[in-house]
Write a structure and sequence with these properties.
Chain lengths: 176, 284, 788
């Protein structure tokens, strides 16, 4: 391959697209950088910021594995462009715990075995987080509606719904 | 993704129109729920993307008594779901919005994007049809308004010319007592494209409007059904009659989602159930 | 045996790795980046069956950033876990739409994608085999050279010059005589489509081939690191000891990641790229369209019964639409030989299980290993026999269920401690309040409301389908602080193996659960052997191995302690972190004082680091006899039953499930929280197969639903109102040679869910369904048809 290109061994291929400035907040920390405008937010969070907790399950916004919270709303980061995060406040699974402590939601996921392989778990937690942020006492139906866009093949969803209900109750009681 | 695009996010409509004129083939980027799939699957190579989410006038839901409702092009489906005024005055639209994709997708997908994508099964199309909505378009030659029932021209095709952009959709005001319903059948209870969708509206004058999606190349008003039902009392018997009548006026196809037979069958059922629901609501 | 005698067994501990998974710290191959790593993309065949006339990769190779382009010409290797019938990359011919024809490794994904687009392939389309009947007809052959393929002789029986990859049989008694004795003969044909495993993490492989030797290092989202090592070595003609396979956390498997899949050809790519690590992450479309599925299957069942309900004979043809390659699917076909007639005592049996080639994406192991498919046929058929007899389907099954002293269709003898099918059936019919079938009057009364309720149930039984000499092993080491690390060869993909094994070890060692860890990142260079993490066998086999390792650890400590305490080893016992004398309990030595050997006051050291191991070999198993299928293939039988209470909307065809009651004779739940997880997840996966899932193909053999747009799985809104797990933990029927009486359950919750739902639909509607899925469309149109 090398001798076809005047002896240059290409390790970095310039796409030819000029990078664009990106300034945002990710998990309460400021980020100032530039990005390829064709990069998705998922690619940015994982390959650039090395926050590998968020996963790609389909790349088309169907399975929810890539769910993160942007400006208070859940989105499928695989179909959001990184540059759309300009000025945005982003929360990923890595930002749920604080001061080296797991959040109540994460604790209840563990206690209720709301996970098995764990691959859908980060996205599931973000959808649950956003639900509890706007509805601190959700019914089973409301939980199902909020989580219907997060596929899980392992748990059958029952333990996840239990975990979210119990977390909601504890948050109402413990977080004043 | 093979496309290498230039991304532009204007702050005003004029900036947008200027960019569109200078860059033919620009794709409009609102929620991106359709566009990003096109990009990922390399269905098209796209050189220019125009993000309309920075144009503030496109981000509103405005209702004015006497005038009606205006939904800007950047308004998300979830904003439609959570709009009290839409729930109250244009219930079929809120109900249809509830059935669009998943919660996360509804935070991104826009109502205008749904109709501009012009899938035959666009959930938000039939409610707009029964409300005689109007599509507001801006372009290099100026602004124009197109009735929703003239907006769709074929499978994934609309009247939009090159370099035109939809700025929003307006629905005429409704009187007290105006009611509507949206019924959809999908393959699962979770989020899914519709096998068929029906919107029925009964105005305060007992005028009935019926529209459907996923049973024709475009979303359609069932004008002949509306004519026939105008002569009838709104009773459970009429709802049963509607079930058969609707089927006479549509020719759905078979595809990976459903056979034509089931589409035909379920269209009648949805219409019947929809009308029954409205009748019961009217009684109470 | 009550839980009171155990400290850790029976406790609902949190899974050990939960924190890593809820914080995003768990690393999957999906996330991994290695220094110098390249990215791979593939070109797929658009045709179901075609000759490859030419491939021009010159433009792709010339693209800056491309480090390797490979085609079948560059990889003259074949692979096959049971029959070597598949090229690593298609050579000369493609046999399914989606098959890999060429691949690229480049410095980034975009460059790899661009390069793939530059590869020009010329095909000559060939007529294809699309259905079971076309396959049986044999006019077009998928594999003309079938008769030359290396395969496990005496276990699989390829039929030369046909599309039959293997024809396996069961013969017991005399079916001709059995049918003559019957009062009625009932025949049915039933079928299921192919479905996808849909793990949330697709298949991902990173392969790194040493350019100066044969050595290969592979990281894979895989269930079977040792099988992968063995098959990769075999396919490339290198030594097993030159291959290292590492499996970190994996995002689900469900059988689709058992055996070997992308690893060998990614290794070829790495070799072509001068040994750079190459990562291939399957897209979701590739997961559906390239990677294998569960086979479609068509069953023809004929049963003879007496008026009183006793079955006299059964003749079955299970024909598997297994796709283009035999892979693991051919073993699924073989397994039907001992399980393909349900948990019934049948004196006369003739069963044919034919694994058939078609030009579609091929099939592999899938949770249940053929049992969901065979039990759809058998349990629906059983219900239809009961209908014919005018008998309550519960009574009919009770008349024929396997009991102690009776034999299975492959001649295995049932003991009390094999398990109790009837206890499972009794439990579920009680839970849904079964009082007999709905009458026509009751049905008519409900029709007005537009919704009709129905109840149904179905049995299930499965033993692991594995070689008769399957074994597993465990290594244990104690740290200076008395903490124990365990290495096993099985992969915890969320089923909880690591947590369960920790509980077993903690129980035997009598230490707190926090002091025991099973190490992650199974590495064939370091971890001891396990066959494949499949078959619901690991609790039994691994549990037994870990118990032995733990007991050996205690024995080693006692041997040193006996010297220190100057007593006999058999006077010693253990607990609370000490080895101590059974009578003079103050005469004791702590584990920590023994863990690195014991040091006397004068400085003498005895003993040494405490490292133990345990091995478990499945004992007494035999291969099924090649002609009769008789033998002892089943290590452990787990019996179960599901009962369903549902309601159908007779206009839309939509099913609403109120309750699924699922009972399993599990012997002992080591951790009920983990077991519940298997039940909820497996039952819902069964609901998916029952109501939603199914691959659809165009007339020319193209997959029509290769994405989540049209290949749906159950979401949180698709769950039943209630799933009620019931565990039979009766010491009389517990697995006496398993750990604490426990049996496996990983696959069983999925089996027979569709059958129970189909049976409930009959109760509701009086309509018999013979095909899956029971989608709103299929149910509504069947109701319409029945009304006309």
């Amino acid at each position: 391959m090398c001798d076809k290109h005047n002896g240059n061994c290409f390790e970095y291929v310039d796409s030819g697209i000029p990078k664009v400035a990106l300034n945002c907040i990710v998990n309460r920390e400021e980020v100032h950088t530039t990005v390829d405008p064709t990069m998705t937010l998922l690619q940015f969070l994982t390959t650039e910021l090395k926050l590998f907790g968020t996963k790609e399950g389909c790349g088309e916004g169907e399975c929810g594995a890539c769910t993160i919270i942007m400006n208070g709303k859940t989105v499928n980061s695989c179909i959001v462009l990184a540059i759309e995060a300009e000025g945005a406040d982003i929360l990923t699974v890595e930002g749920l715990g604080r001061n080296n402590e797991l959040s109540i939601l994460q604790q209840e996921f563990i206690a209720n075995d709301a996970l098995q392989c764990g691959f859908c778990t980060p996205g599931m937690l973000m959808s649950a987080r956003e639900l509890l942020d706007r509805n601190n006492d959700p019914s089973d139906e409301e939980i199902k509606e909020a989580l219907a866009g997060n596929f899980c093949r392992c748990t059958g969803y029952f333990p996840i719904i239990d975990a979210v209900k119990k977390a909601a109750k504890r948050e109402r009681e413990e977080l004043k | 993704m093979l496309s290498k695009f230039d991304y532009f996010k204007p702050q005003t409509l004029d900036e947008a129109l200027t960019y569109l004129e200078s860059n033919p083939g620009t794709r409009i980027f609102a929620g991106g729920t359709d566009l990003m799939i096109v990009l990922r699957r390399d269905m098209e190579i796209i050189d220019h993307i125009l993000d309309i989410k920075g144009i503030s006038e496109l981000g509103h839901i405005d209702y004015k008594s006497g005038e009606g409702l205006f939904i800007g092009a950047a308004v998300t489906v979830n904003e439609v779901c959570f709009s009290d005024i839409i729930r109250e005055k244009y219930p079929a639209l809120g109900q249809a919005a509830d059935t669009v994709a998943s919660y996360q997708l509804r935070n991104r997908a826009t109502l205008v994007g749904n109709i501009c994508n012009a899938s035959p099964g666009a959930d938000l199309s039939s409610p707009l049809l029964v409300y005689n909505a109007k599509v507001h378009i801006a372009g290099p030659k100026g602004k124009r308004i197109v009735d929703i029932d003239k907006f769709f021209t074929g499978v994934k095709r609309t009247v939009l010319e090159k370099n035109e952009i939809v700025t929003g959709v307006s629905l005429p005001d409704v009187q007290a007592g105006d009611m509507s319903v949206y019924k959809k059948q999908a393959r699962i209870k979770g989020h899914d494209l519709g096998i068929a969708g029906v919107s029925i509206r009964i105005t305060s004058n007992k005028e009935v409007f019926v529209a459907m999606s996923a049973v024709a190349p475009t979303p359609i008003r069932l004008a002949k059904v509306e004519e026939a039902i105008a002569t009838k009392e709104l009773t459970p018997e009429t709802a049963a009659w509607l079930s058969t009548e609707v089927r006479k006026h549509i020719s759905p196809i078979s595809d990976v989602r459903s056979s034509a037979e089931y589409r035909l069958h379920i269209s009648g059922i949805l219409a019947k159930k929809g009308l029954l629901q409205l009748i019961e609501k009217g009684v109470n | 045996m009550s839980d009171k005698q155990y400290t850790h067994i029976g406790k609902r501990y949190d899974r050990k790795e939960a924190q890593e998974k809820v914080t995003g710290q768990a690393i999957y191959v999906h996330d991994m980046e290695l220094p110098g790593m390249l990215h791979a993309k593939c070109l797929h065949s658009p045709y179901a069956h075609a000759e490859i006339v030419s491939i021009d990769t010159s433009a792709a190779k010339a693209l800056p950033g491309v480090k390797a382009v490979v085609t079948g010409e560059d990889a003259p290797y074949s692979v096959g876990i049971y029959m070597v019938d598949k090229d690593l990359i298609a050579r000369n011919k493609v046999r399914y739409q989606g098959e890999i024809v060429a691949a690229v490794a480049a410095v980034d994904e975009r460059t790899a994608e661009e390069a793939v687009k530059l590869i020009k392939v010329e095909y000559k389309e060939l007529p294809a085999v699309h259905t079971v009947d076309e396959s049986l007809e044999g006019k077009i052959l998928v594999h003309e050279d079938l008769h030359t393929y290396e395969h496990m002789k005496g276990v699989f029986f390829p039929q030369a010059h046909t599309n039959i990859a293997s024809w396996n049989r069961t013969l017991k008694g005399d079916v001709k005589k059995g049918f003559e004795e019957a009062d009625y003969i009932v025949e049915n044909e039933l079928s299921v489509p192919a479905v996808g495993h849909v793990p949330m993490e697709t298949h991902v492989v990173i392969a790194q081939a040493d350019p100066y030797s044969d050595k290969v290092k592979v990281w894979s989202s895989a269930q079977s690191p040792f099988a992968c090592r063995q098959l990769l070595a075999k396919s490339l003609g290198i030594k097993k000891s030159d291959v290292q396979v590492i499996v970190p956390y994996i995002g689900g498997g469900f059988g689709g990641k058992a055996g070997i899949h992308l690893e060998p050809f990614v290794t070829v790519l790495s070799r072509a790229a001068n040994g750079r690590p190459v990562k291939l992450k399957a897209t979701r479309e590739e997961e559906f369209n390239l990677l294998p599925t569960r086979a479609g299957m068509r069953s023809r069942v004929k049963t003879g019964v007496k008026k009183d309900g006793r079955i006299t004979a059964i003749e079955v043809y299970h024909d598997w639409d297994s796709g283009a390659y035999a892979d693991y699917g051919v073993n699924v076909g073989k397994t039907a030989v001992y399980s393909g007639a349900g948990p019934y005592s049948i004196p006369n049996v003739e069963l044919h299980s034919r694994t058939l080639y078609t030009n579609k994406v091929f099939s592999t192991a899938y949770r249940g290993f053929g049992h969901l498919e065979t039990h759809w046929a058998i349990e629906r058929h059983m219900d239809m026999i009961a209908q014919k007899l005018g008998m309550d389907p519960y009574e009919f099954r009770m008349k024929n269920l396997l009991r102690t002293g009776e034999t299975t269709i492959s001649g295995e003898l049932m003991y009390d401690t094999t398990g109790s099918p009837e206890a499972c059936l009794d439990a579920v019919v009680k839970e849904i309040g079964w009082t007999g079938r709905k009458t026509e009057e009751e049905r008519q009364a409900e029709i007005k409301s537009g919704k009709i309720r129905g109840k149904g149930f179905a049995m299930l039984a499965k033993a692991p389908a594995m070689p008769s000499y399957t074994s597993t092993s465990a290594i244990m080491q104690m740290d200076e602080d008395g903490h124990v690390k365990i290495m096993i060869g099985a992969v915890d993909m969320g089923q909880g193996a690591n947590t369960i094994m920790a509980q077993v070890a903690a129980e035997e060692l009598r230490v707190p659960i926090e002091n025991v860890e099973v190490l992650w990142n199974v590495d064939t260079d370091k971890h001891p052997y396990d066959w494949n993490t499949v078959a619901s066998k690991y609790t039994v086999m691994g549990g037994n191995a870990v118990r032995k390792a733990a007991r050996n650890m205690i024995t080693q400590m006692k041997e040193v302690a006996a010297q220190v305490l100057r007593c006999h080893t058999d006077e010693l016992t253990h607990g609370d972190g000490y080895i101590y004398h059974i009578h003079h309990t103050h005469r004791r030595v702590s584990y920590t004082d023994l863990s690195m050997g014991y040091v006397y006051e004068n400085g003498n050291g005895i003993g040494g680091p405490i490292i133990s191991h345990g091995v478990y070999m499945a004992s007494g198993l035999t291969n099924p006899h090649p002609e009769t299928g008789q033998g002892r293939p089943g290590l452990v039988w787990t019996f179960g039953a599901h009962a369903v209470d549902l309601e159908v909307d007779i206009e839309t065809g939509e099913i609403h499930i109120f309750k699924i009651a699922s009972a399993f004779d599990i012997g002992k739940c080591i951790n009920k929280k983990m077991v519940d997880g298997q039940v909820f997840g497996g039952v819902l996966q069964g609901v998916g197969s029952a109501i939603i899932e199914g691959y659809k193909f165009s007339p020319d053999g193209r997959l029509l639903n290769p994405s989540f747009t049209d290949n749906k799985i159950p979401t949180a809104k698709d769950i039943p109102d209630e799933i009620v797990p019931i565990y039979i933990e009766d010491p009389k029927s517990a697995q006496i040679d398993g750990p604490y009486g426990a049996r496996g359950i990983g696959e069983h919750p999925m089996i027979s869910v569709p059958s129970a739902i189909g049976n409930a639909l009959y109760d509701a509607l009086g309509v018999n369904f013979r095909k899956l899925p029971l989608s709103p469309e299929n149910v509504a149109l069947a109701i319409e048809k029945a009304n006309n």
